[in-house]
Structures are given as C-alpha cells and as structure tokens.
Specification:
The chain has about 400 residues and is mostly helical. Helix content is about 55%, strand content about 5%. Helix 3 crosses helix 4 and helix 8 runs parallel beside helix 10.
C-alpha cells in the first residue's frame, strides 16, 4: 500500500483517467487534425480560447502522444498526432539559428520569436520520446542540436527567461531541472559525452547554487553570478517546481545508478513537502518564504499537487519510506477532493488556498496531469511486481 491505498486500486484509477478521459479529450480537442500541431488554450468544455500554437505546447503534445503510444495505448492515431505535430514544428517553429519560437498561428505564422527556452526543452523531450516510437533519426539529430543551442543560451550571462516576472538576467532552477529531465531522456537513448557534461552541469547548478544547505530548499531564482537577489526573489521557494526538480534528479540518479544522488534528492523532496504543505487547509502552496515557510502566494494549482504525487510515488518505490507514503496519501486525497471538475470531467487547473476553483477556470493542462499519471502507473506496476521486495534500481538500498 501507499498512503492507505492498495497499489492495484491506484494503478487502475490512474489508468482509467488517463486512457478513458485524458487522452481522448486531448485527441479530440487539442490536436489540429487539419494542419497538424497542438492548440494552446483548450477550455473545460473542449472549446478553444484562440487557435494559437505555443512552442511549449508543440513539444508537450509530441511527448504526451508519443509516450501514450509507446507505453499505454498503441493507437496509431496517437502516433500520427505526434508525427504531424513534429512535422508542423519543424516546418514553422524554428528561427535561422535553430531556436524554437514561442508562439505560432494555427497556420504556422510566427507570433512570438524564440523568447522562451522552455519551447526548446519541451521539443527535445518530445522528439526523444517520438524516436522511441518511430525510430526516425531526424528526431535525434534535431534534439541533439537543440540541446547544444540550449546550453549556449543558458550559459550566457545575459540569459533571461521570457516570463513576465523575469525582467533582468538571472539563473533559474526551473530551467536547470527541465533541461536535465530532457537530457536524461535523450541520454537513455543516445549515450553522448557532450550531453553527459550538460547533465552533470545542470545537477551541479541545482545542488551547489540553488540549494540552500541550511533549509534543504531550492531558491528558484538567482543572479547571473549565482548569488541571491536582495529583493523578494532571494526568498522565494516554489515547492511545485522543486518537486519537479527532485523528480528530475531522481530520474538522473536512476539512469546513472547513483544511489547517493537519489538519496539526497529524496531528502530534498521531503523538505519541500514539509515547507509547502498548508497545515490549515491542506494542499501545496505556489510560493513560500524560505525563512519560515509562510505563503508568499497561497494559491494551490493542480500542477503543483500532481508533481508531488509523481515525485513522492517515485521516492516511495525505491525507499519504502513511511513518510513518503503518508505524504503521498495526503496530497492525493486533497487533490481528488478539491480539483475534479464535476461538470466537464478531468481537473480544474487553478485553485485558491481553500481549494476552490475560480469562477472562470483556466484552460486544460496537456502536460503535468497526464505525464504524472503515466509515471505513476508505471511505478505502481513495478511495485506490484516487486511485491514488497527491494528495488533493483541500485546496487544497494537507498536508506530513509
């Protein structure tokens, strides 16, 4: 059991939501079946709030449909959606330097240039997963060349993320762990010493620069010199992002058979859960203050909850730690109590501190929600097969 739930019960629940609700919704409403690619803003009822195709969404869509095809449902329509998304992105989505643009019209006209490095990172992740499905060498070639451009860009002292809160050059933990996750996926397919060096650097940046050793919490944003900002940014911890960071570190630790890194990542995850969990209303805060874990932003959006569900599941699989089981049960119950959309199915994406959605709910999440459920289904399947025996991911058991 985990969190008071039977493993088979959870696996079957996640599989039903993924295959009977999530993937059919996105195939019907999120895919441009005429021109290829994926729409960015799909409302609760499946209607479109515009026909833009953001760069993030193209990589995400390729990844989600490829992974579902590879591991859960070999529906040829899913592979076709991923391939046509790739073809659309390759035709319209890169500038002359090979960087991926941030937003396109439905027909592929550029609305926003290559301002977001996440467009590039998601594309690497998507192309790596698509290669596992169709073995097209072009997927790997483009993914590798994109990684090299990403590394060049984020090492530039003038690097600045495109989100509105980032108005001056900085280093952000979000970029490091997203890039590490994409590199881990690519390196599992294609061993490469240069890509390996990028992954090592990302791990070092996270653990040696962003991690506060006194609290075992990640400071999300630093100056280009890897120092803290003197304003509020120097205090901000983003628990949901940090859960993703720990998951990326755990995945890399499993790939490299590094039990020490895995163990450290699990400890950091525990610190962020305890700092991010609301002791009054439950749920994970969006932003907390590193000094006392008080909320800076008390909203509790769906992606933050599901990222802890995924990272805690992986931590428990390889440690059987009682606290990981307990915390998993807490966040699962909170999320399934507050976030399901009773009218249209799936989940609301936004919630306030008490867990109530806004009057006008946000567009659906193509990425965090299905990705976590996919990962948890696979983890639960492995746990069921192990039947309480020690994980075989490492040569020695990772301690609590």
């Amino acid at each position: 059991m985990i969190g008071g739930f039977e493993l088979k019960e959870l696996r079957d629940l996640y599989r039903r939501i993924l295959l009977d609700e999530c993937m059919p919704f996105w195939f019907q409403y999120g895919v441009d079946h005429d021109l290829g690619g994926f729409y960015s803003t799909v409302n609760r009822d499946g209607s479109l709030d515009g026909t833009d195709k953001r760069g993030w969404q193209q990589g995400r869509g390729i990844f989600i449909f490829s992974r579902c095809y590879n591991s859960f449902d070999p529906d040829p329509r899913y592979l076709e959606a991923a391939r046509r998304g790739r073809d659309f992105a390759l035709r319209f989505g890169r500038d002359s330097r090979g960087d991926w643009v941030a937003n396109l019209t439905a027909k592929g006209e550029v609305l926003e240039d290559s301002t977001s490095i996440f467009s590039d990172i998601y594309m690497v992740q998507g192309l790596a997963e698509l290669f596992n499905a169709d073995h097209d060498q072009q997927n790997l070639d483009v993914a590798v060349s994109t990684c090299k451009r990403i590394q060049d860009r984020i090492m530039d002292p003038q690097f600045c993320h495109s989100l509105s809160v980032y108005t001056e050059p900085h280093r952000t933990n979000g970029v490091w762990f997203f890039f590490l996750g994409a590199l881990t996926s690519l390196l599992e397919i294609l061993p490469d010493s240069e890509l390996e060096s990028y992954a090592n650097y990302a791990v070092e940046a996270m653990l040696e620069e962003h991690l506060d050793t006194d609290t075992s919490l990640f400071i999300e944003t630093l100056t280009p010199q890897a120092e803290r900002f003197s304003d509020r940014r120097g205090l901000e911890v983003m628990p949901g992002h940090s859960a993703e960071a720990c998951k990326a570190l755990m995945d890399e630790a499993i790939r490299t058979k590094n039990g020490t890194l895995f163990n450290q990542s699990v400890g950091i995850l525990r610190s962020h859960y305890e700092a991010g969990w609301d002791p009054v209303y439950g749920g994970i805060y969006f932003l907390t203050d590193i000094r006392d874990s008080s909320p800076i932003d008390s909203s509790k959006n769906a992606w933050q909850q599901v990222e802890f569900m995924g990272s805690l599941m992986q931590a428990y699989e390889h440690t059987y730690a009682d606290w990981a089981s307990e915390y998993y049960g807490q966040v699962h119950r909170w999320a399934f109590k507050h976030l399901p959309d009773k009218k249209y199915g799936l989940w609301h994406q936004l919630a306030d501190r008490k867990g109530s959605p806004p009057l006008k709910s946000a567009s659906r999440d193509m990425y965090h929600f299905p990705r976590t459920f996919m990962g948890n289904i696979q983890s639960l399947h492995r746990q069921i097969e192990l039947n309480g025996q020690e994980s075989t991911a490492f040569t020695r058991k990772v301690s609590e």
